[in-house]
């Protein structure tokens, strides 16, 4: 074989190798395309699965103790499933005047009833040292402007654990001495 023929033969072998690599790469592109389509399909189906919904009531005054003032709100949770769902935790942050006044977590508060609604009471304890800072917000109308942020974490089969964020804001009238006695 002459040198020219050997060069042509080597060039043809290289070209064949490139075509073979392209074909293998094209196969990988096909597989990755199918995987992407499958992911898209699963995401679409998961977003169509009904999920529990929740709403948050306004904050109200509950009681006074030696430790501070106790406020409360209710979280209503609707369950679209025919079986009960565990609530992992409820977290809350109570703010007034842009400051965090109280925050906490209720670990393992129970279950959401099957095919129905469950009402959870959310106690918010405000220590006395924060009440002094709240006095600045009171003014002449004896109310507190507030924001209550709640995260309701539940565990759904197949989907896993997820948190429903809830927020309510408003004004809360504080009780007078006449209301307490």
From TrEMBL:
<feature type="domain" description="Water stress and hypersensitive response">
    <location>
        <begin position="54"/>
        <end position="171"/>
    </location>
</feature>
<dbReference type="InterPro" id="IPR013990">
    <property type="entry name" value="WHy-dom"/>
</dbReference>
<feature type="region of interest" description="Disordered">
    <location>
        <begin position="1"/>
        <end position="28"/>
    </location>
</feature>
<dbReference type="GO" id="GO:0009269">
    <property type="term" value="P:response to desiccation"/>
</dbReference>
<protein>
    <submittedName>
        <fullName>Late embryogenesis abundant protein Lea14-A</fullName>
    </submittedName>
</protein>
<dbReference type="InterPro" id="IPR045043">
    <property type="entry name" value="Lea14-like"/>
</dbReference>
<dbReference type="GO" id="GO:0005829">
    <property type="term" value="C:cytosol"/>
</dbReference>
<dbReference type="Pfam" id="PF03168">
    <property type="entry name" value="LEA_2"/>
</dbReference>
<comment type="similarity">
    <text>Belongs to the LEA type 2 family.</text>
</comment>
<dbReference type="InterPro" id="IPR004864">
    <property type="entry name" value="LEA_2"/>
</dbReference>
